[in-house]
Every structure is written in structure tokens, then in C-alpha cells.
Specification:
483 residues; 5-stranded antiparallel β-sheet; 13 helices; disordered N terminus; 10 strands; 5-stranded mixed β-sheet; 58% helix; Beta-Lactamase; alpha+beta; Heat Shock Protein 90
């Protein structure tokens, strides 16, 4: 009978080299040739990845937000200024109308007599004294009294008294209806030639009043338009501190919020990059593990069978039945190993029967390799969510695999439990243990299963701790919060 071990050993040397050559190339962070694994900053130092550039990016985003807020503040300020000025002008015109009514009915109308209408100088002088002392001021700059036929019977500008001009339709309508009208004066008209010295724009307000016998005359007051516009300015100044102050306060409050949101968004982006990198690394670890299991187990066995069958084919006499039976047994063992590998990748009973059944199968398969393994699920209560169960199963796989291969343990305990809304799994062995330096050396040699598993557990909000000391065994404990 051939020495299957020698076949496996001889074939394996060339196969290892060929497997390394056929690899499409290491993923980022894994260097082919020496097996060294270097974790990127996202994996080992996520908070420090691009810290300076990250802050500048956040500052740029917040700056854009602040600039947009400043532009909006400017637009709102201008719109508020225009609106308040227009409202102020309307209020100023309304004040002028009110003031004209009070002046006309309270001060002027009692002194407007038929004698004044007839051109009596004494009546005009009496009205002039009241107009100059009690009516005219810095805002009201001109007063005229018209008859219905367009004759000016009184004006504080004496050169206008006795002048005759055609009344406009609005003035005649005011005399007929008694309405109070206000409009911007047309300083180009002859009757307004003396008002041009008071500014480029005047507001004239007119309304009918009556003599003692009821004869209607038209009272006309001219206001400097600057006073009307000043009303709008005063209104704007009264509203500006409230409006702009509130907008500025809102902007100042929003900038820290925007900074916080941009910073969180940046952190989430970095975390997503870390998740992707960890997923790629975990996938690489799985591929390497599968390749190693196939190479060291099934592939070697099948290679030995192939060499043995080739040797038998060259034998002239009848083949050795014992040797063929050994080859068949090897093939059957390889089939079982492949099935075991498939189950390790994803146990079919994990979803249907739960974590306890899947762990029991794992323990039974791993115990075949010679180390007795015990499962303790007495403290496991509620059925676990599939995602949590799958993560605990992976932790148990990694712990049992490391204990069987590296610990030289006499016994292994796998304990799964539910503690305070947390799912816990522990893999405890009584093997030789190891120190921190040895763990670092293993990771440097390409054994990054624990690191990849820790990243997956961290992403799920849990924690993974490895406690070990030389000669004191090893405990791998994984905790995952339950939703």
C-alpha cells in the first residue's frame, strides 16, 4: 500500500506555490509574498482617519451653509427694508390726510368766510396770521384755498392770491363728493411754480370746506415728501433690530447645529468606509480559510488518491483490492469534509432550529479532531434574532477553530447565554494560552480572523474580548445587544 502521507507532502509543496501564484492579488491592506496584514486607518483608527482633512471638509460645508444663510439674510433684509419703507410711506400719507382734515376743519374753516371768497383783505390777513402761526411747519410748507371756479382766494404765497387756474378732475370731484384726496404734486404746473423751491417732490392733500353760508371751497395743503419718506425710515428702523436680530440669532444658532450635523455625516461616511473595508477583509479571511482547509484536507487526500490510482493502473496484475478500498475510504472522507466545510460556511439549521442546534453540530464536528468539546446552553432563553445568532455562531467557529489548532487544550467549553438583553457566547479552553506578543505575531503572519470578527461585532454594537495568559488557557467572550 502506498504511503498516503508522502503523496500528500510531495504534492502539497508545489500546490501551495501554485495557489499563491493563482491568486488574483491581495486586497488593499494585505501584501502578498510575506503574508503581512496591515490594517488601514479606517479599521484601526477610524476617528483619526484624515482628521485634518476631515475638519477642513466639515468647515467648508459649514462655511457654505453660513454663506447661504448670509445671502438669505441679506435678501430678507432688503425685502423687509423695501416693504417697511412702502408701508411707512403709506402711513405717512395717511398721517398727512389726517393732519389736513384736523387743520382744515379745526383751524381754517372757521376763518373761511364769504368775505374771504369775495377778496376781502382783512379776512385774508386774519386767516394768514393763523396759518403762519399754527399751521405751517417744517413738513406742511404751503396752504391754498380755492373757489369752485379755480380762483385762489388765499395762499401763504401772496403772489398766488387772485390767480385763476383750471381745476383738475380730481379737485372738482372732491368738491362734489366731499372726498379727501392725496397725490404727488405736479410741480410743472403753473399754479405750483412757487412750490419748486421746497423740493423736487411734494405731497398735496385737498378736501372741501365751507363758508358760514355753506359755500364750498377747496382747502389744499402741501407737505414735503421727505417727511413722508422719513416715516418709512422710522418704521424700518423700528423693525430692523427685531427682524435682522432674529435672523442673525437664528443663523448663529444654526451654525453649531450645521457643524454638528456635518461632523456626524463625516463620521458616518468614515464608518461606512470602515464597514466596507472590514467586510472586504472578512471576505478575504474567509476565502483564505476555505483555501487553507481545502488544501490541507480534501485536496491533499484527493491528490493522494489520484497518485495511488495512477500507480495501480500501471500494475500488470490484478489491482490490490485493499488499496482500492483505502482510496474509496479516502474519497468518502473527503466528501464528508466538503460537506462539513459547507455547513461551516452557513449551517442550514441555524435559521430553522436556532443557535443551540447549530452550535451542537459545530461541537460534534470539531470534537472528531480529538479535543473534547462541551456545549452549555442552559442560560439561553429566548430565540435569538437571525443576525445575532449568525454573529454568535461565527464567534464560536473562530474560537473553537483557534482552540483546536493552536491551544493544545485538553478540553474546550462553549457557553451561550442571554444576560440582560444581551446575547453572550464564550469559548474557554485549558490550553497553553498566549501573550500579547504572540497574538501580534499571529496577526502579522496573516491570522486576522479575530480582528475581522471584532470589527463585525463592533458594527453590531457589541464587544469582543480575548483573555489569555501563558499556561492559563484562553477565553474568547462575545457580547451582542438584543434589539
Amino acid at each position: 500500500m502506498p504511503d498516503w502521507t508522502s503523496y500528500r507532502r510531495g504534492w502539497g509543496i508545489g500546490t501551495i506555490a501554485s495557489l499563491r501564484q493563482r491568486r488574483s492579488g491581495p486586497p488593499e491592506g494585505i501584501h502578498a509574498g510575506d503574508g503581512t496584514v496591515e490594517a488601514g486607518g479606517v479599521l484601526e483608527g477610524t476617528p483619526g482617519v484624515g482628521r485634518g482633512s476631515g475638519r477642513w471638509l466639515v468647515a467648508a460645508q459649514v462655511g457654505q451653509f453660513a454663506l447661504a444663510g448670509l445671502i438669505a439674510l441679506t435678501i430678507v433684509g432688503l425685502a423687509t427694508s423695501i416693504a417697511s419703507r412702502r408701508i411707512g410711506e403709506r402711513e405717512g400719507i395717511a398721517d398727512a390726510r389726517t393732519n389736513t382734515v384736523i387743520t382744515a376743519t379745526g383751524l381754517v374753516e372757521p376763518l373761511v368766510t364769504d368775505a374771504l371768497v369775495a377778496g376781502d383783505a382783512g379776512a385774508a390777513a386774519k386767516l394768514d396770521r393763523v396759518i403762519r402761526s399754527d399751521v405751517l411747519d417744517g413738513d406742511l410748507v404751503r396752504v391754498k384755498v380755492w373757489t369752485a371756479n379755480g380762483t385762489i382766494v388765499y395762499a401763504d404765497e401772496r403772489r398766488l392770491i387772485g390767480e385763476h387756474y383750471e381745476l383738475g378732475e380730481d379737485e372738482r370731484g372732491a368738491l362734489r363728493t366731499g372726498a379727501i384726496e392725496a397725490e404727488v404734486s405736479d410741480l410743472s404746473k403753473p399754479e405750483n411754480r412757487y412750490e419748486r423751491t421746497h423740493g423736487r417732490k411734494l405731497l398735496e392733500v385737498y378736501l372741501p370746506i365751507h363758508t358760514e353760508t355753506g359755500k364750498p371751497v377747496l382747502f389744499e395743503a402741501y407737505y414735503a415728501y421727505d417727511s413722508v419718506q422719513a416715516s418709512g425710515t422710522r418704521l424700518w428702523r423700528s423693525f430692523a433690530p427685531i427682524t435682522l436680530g432674529a435672523l442673525i440669532a437664528l443663523e448663529l444658532v444654526q451654525i453649531p447645529l450645521a457643524w454638528s450635523l456635518a461632523h456626524r455625516l463625516r463620521l458616518r461616511s468614515v464608518e461606512r468606509e470602515g464597514l466596507l473595508k472590514r467586510a472586504l477583509e472578512a471576505s478575504e479571511v474567509e476565502r483564505r480559510q476555505i483555501a487553507s482547509d481545502l488544501h490541507d484536507g480534501v485536496v491533499q487526500d484527493l491528490a493522494g488518491v489520484a497518485y495511488g490510482l495512477s500507480a495501480q493502473a500501471r500494475v500488470a496484475e490484478a489491482p490490490d483490492e485493499a488499496q482500492l478500498e483505502a482510496a474509496a475510504a479516502t474519497v468518502r472522507g473527503s466528501v464528508r469534509a466538503l460537506r462539513s466545510l459547507v455547513i461551516d460556511l452557513y449551517p442550514p439549521n441555524l435559521r430553522e432550529e436556532g443557535i443551540e442546534s447549530a452550535l451542537r453540530d459545530l461541537v460534534e464536528r470539531s470534537s472528531v479532531q480529538g479535543t473534547p468539546i462541551t456545549l452549555d446552553a442552559s442560560s439561553l432563553h429566548d430565540p435569538l434574532p437571525e443576525a445575532v445568532a449568525r454573529l454568535l455562531y461565527r464567534a464560536a467557529q473562530e474560537g473553537v477553530r483557534n482552540a483546536v489548532r493552536h491551544a493544545d487544550a485538553a478540553s474546550i467549553l462553549v457557553r451561550v447565554a442571554t444576560e440582560d438583553r444581551t446575547a453572550v457566547i464564550e469559548v474557554v479552553d485549558d490550553g497553553r494560552g498566549f501573550g500579547d506578543d504572540e497574538l501580534a505575531e499571529r496577526e502579522a503572519d496573516g491570522h486576522v480572523g479575530i480582528r475581522a470578527l471584532r470589527g463585525l461585532v463592533f458594527d453590531a454594537g457589541g464587544s469582543l474580548t480575548v483573555t489569555s495568559a501563558l499556561g492559563s488557557g484562553t477565553t474568547l467572550r462575545t457580547e451582542v445587544p438584543l434589539p
